[in-house]
């Protein structure tokens, strides 16, 4: 059973999400919060698998709530998916850098919303299709961040290749095909890269790949 925490300051939005999620046999909403501070508190109390967090809220916004969840070792198993009414680039960057597993616009289709919850709990990177292109373009337009590539020295050549493919949006099965290895070996390369780079999930590998310069317009 996938345990979900809803964090949104609009009761109507929360009730709609709850109705949609509770109708699924493999998902249950364990708690609701009206702001980020309460969301962090309830995350610690209930230890959900996925926290669906509105980006703009009073008291503590979604970005700061995500940052607090990501920084708490006790909440390492909580996958945060940021929700917003707008696909604004600055929110995408801040959410991913804060530790979010993904980012969805609230007008997403119900079937895609439910799929997002299941994808997030697997630790896969999740970005709304309408946002992904601008996200990548923004990353490759910026110079690598100073010191962001330091972690590259700890990766093997195959692990680097796997990280590049993750940044391109490939699944483990597709990575395996590209690298001519088994899906299990592909998963091993990805997981080892995550461990060495202290990445919470695949979304963090995407951030690292672009900020370190491992992925550039030339090799994208």
Automatic annotation (TrEMBL):
PTM-bearing positions, type 4-aspartylphosphate: 54
InterPro entries reported for this sequence: CheY-like_superfamily, NreC/VraR/RcsB-like_REC, Sig_transdc_resp-reg_C-effctor, Sig_transdc_resp-reg_receiver, Tscrpt_reg_LuxR_C, WalR-like
HTH luxR-type domain sequence ranges: 148-213
Domain Response regulatory: 3-121
SUPFAM superfamilies: C-terminal effector domain of the bipartite response regulators, CheY-like
Gene Ontology terms describing biological process: phosphorelay signal transduction system; regulation of DNA-templated transcription
PROSITE patterns in the record: HTH_LUXR_2, RESPONSE_REGULATORY
DNA-binding among keywords: yes
Gene Ontology molecular function: DNA binding
Keywords of this entry: DNA-binding, Phosphoprotein, Transcription, Transcription regulation
UniProt protein name: DNA-binding response regulator
Species in which this protein is naturally found: Catellatospora citrea
């Amino acid at each position: 059973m996938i345990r979900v925490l809803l964090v949104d300051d609009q009761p109507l939005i929360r009730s709609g999400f709850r109705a949609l999620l509770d109708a699924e046999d493999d998902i249950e909403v364990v708690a609701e919060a009206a702001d980020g501070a309460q969301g962090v508190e309830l995350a610690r109390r209930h230890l959900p698998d996925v926290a669906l967090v509105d980006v703009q809220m009073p008291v503590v916004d979604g970005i700061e709530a995500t940052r607090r969840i990501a920084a708490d070792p006790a909440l390492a198993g909580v996958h945060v998916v940021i929700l917003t009414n707008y696909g604004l680039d600055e929110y995408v960057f801040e959410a991913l850098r804060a530790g979010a597993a993904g980012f969805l616009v609230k007008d997403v289709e119900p079937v895609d919303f439910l799929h997002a919850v299941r994808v997030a709990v697997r630790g896969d990177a999740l970005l709304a299709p309408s946002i992904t292109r601008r996200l990548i373009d923004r990353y490759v337009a910026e110079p690598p961040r100073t010191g962001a590539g330091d972690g590259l020295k700890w990766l093997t050549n195959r692990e680097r290749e796997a990280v590049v493919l993750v940044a391109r949006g490939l699944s483990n099965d597709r990575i395996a095909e590209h690298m001519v290895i088994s899906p299990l070996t592909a998963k091993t390369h990805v997981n080892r890269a995550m461990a060495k780079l202290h990445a919470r999930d695949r979304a963090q590998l995407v951030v690292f790949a672009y900020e370190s310069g491992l992925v550039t317009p030339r090799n994208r």
